[in-house]
Amino acid sequence: MGVGVLGTGHYVPPKILTNEDLEKIVETNDEWIQSRTGIQERRIADDDMTAADMAYNASIQALENANIKAEDLDMILVATITGETPMPSIACILQERLGSVNAAAMDVSAACSGFLYAMVTAYQFIATKTYKNILVIGTEKLSKITDWTDRNTCVLFGDGAGAAVMGEVSEGKGILSFDLGANGAGGKHLYQNEAGHLIQNGREVFKFAVRQMPDSVEKAIAKAGIDQDDVDFLVPHQANIRIMEAARQRIGIEEDKMAQSIRKYGNTSAASVPIALSEEVQNGKIKDNDLVVLVGFGGGLTWGSVAMRWGR
Questions:
Q1: What is the pTM of this model?
Q2: Catalytic one of 65, 92, 112, 133
Q3: What sign has the CA pseudo-torsion 239, 240, 242, 248?
Q4: 193 flagged as catalytic
Q5: Residues 192, 270: one domain?
Q6: Number of domains within the chain
Q7: What domain range is 89 assigned to?
Q8: Same domain, yes or no: 73 and 113
Q9: Disulfide check for 190: which of 124, 199, 299, 305 has CB 3.0–4.6 Å away?
């Protein structure tokens, strides 16, 4: 048996913050934002909605899609940097709310790469027959740690959650290979300051990302023993359209075979990859037996990629 995705789900708050709205908050404009990032709008959670609330909504959808009951989960892994408190973890909050009484639970902190780190962690538990069904979630309420007076960062981020139920799939399907990495020396380029706000050196992060995302994809593809031409769909971290395009062109994927949810949602950190994945599954762009590659990068600095044969 292989280890793969049994079902996906996602949730974004209803409130839309457009580039035109941001023009009223900071000195910026729609053309400047779109030309540099590809973002047209993003979703913002209300004050009383937490990252755990969004994770819950995405999880319900994923469980229904997978036809798995909450009590049949063996583990819950939540990738996030925006939990309400250091403890209890969002995973533990979800365990109680979902009624997953048999599940172990923990959060994973790898910023925008977090979902991929959590996904690979789930893979190990299932591949070793330790657990059978694991719920993996990426959820972020970045609006609460965004400095809304900093025009260089406040235009980038949004809120949301994506989820996937992982378990055993047919032989030849599921995760074929992965690549994870980190460079702690680059942590100074993307971090949360003492005031709790996200700080980014855009130029350094851009240089890192356009190099590291394709490198990670190439490593995962090589480990899987497949060619770049075999890749049917690419789901990159939705951070910046220029970074995504640079990676796509280097890998050689056609534009219509790359997930592009950034225009609607902006950068949702750990929620970015699972939201994009869930959307592309729902709209039929990712089909049974497709070779799909997920890739992300984030604070730490961290990166990761997963190559998988889609289907159960």
A1: 0.97
A2: 112
A3: positive
A4: no
A5: yes
A6: 2
A7: 2-169
A8: yes
A9: 299
